[in-house]
Amino acid sequence: MVLMGMLRQYDIAVLVSEDTDLLPAVETIIAVKGERAVEVMAWMPADGSKPRPLWIGGKRIRAHRLTERDYRLVHDASDYASGLTDQTPRVR
To answer: How far, in Å, CA of 89 to CA of 9, rounded?
Structure first.
């Protein structure tokens, strides 16, 4: 993400995580491309509370919050370790 940002190979980085160990990468992208070059996607708080805004280096980062409904829409029950996907016929 950082290298591609420094090479200007994308307009906006969308990070689907709020893991704090990725903070240095996000800070670097902001330093190189500005705060509008990073957006974050993460789950809504499970307790139903309002999510906190994400601020990095005094700059507010655009955040998209996903709900359980969003998860159900994209859930993939495939077991890729077994080589079987939802489209693979199963023999019983």
So the answer is: 40
Q: Which residue is it, tokens 């859930």?
A: 75
Q: Does residue 84 carry a pLDDT above 70?
A: no
C-alpha–C-alpha distance, residues 72 and 89, integer Å: 23
DSSP conformation letters of the chain: -HHHHHTT--S-EEE----GGGHHHHHHHHHHH-GGGEEEEEEPPTT-PPPPPEEETTEEEEEEEE-HHHHHHH----BTTTTB-TTS----
Contact in structure between 30 and 15 (CB atoms under 8 Å) = no
Contact 61, 37 (CB under 8 A): no
- Band the pLDDT of 64: cuts 50, 70, 90: confident
How confident is residue 32, by pLDDT bands cut at 50, 70 and 90?
Answer: confident
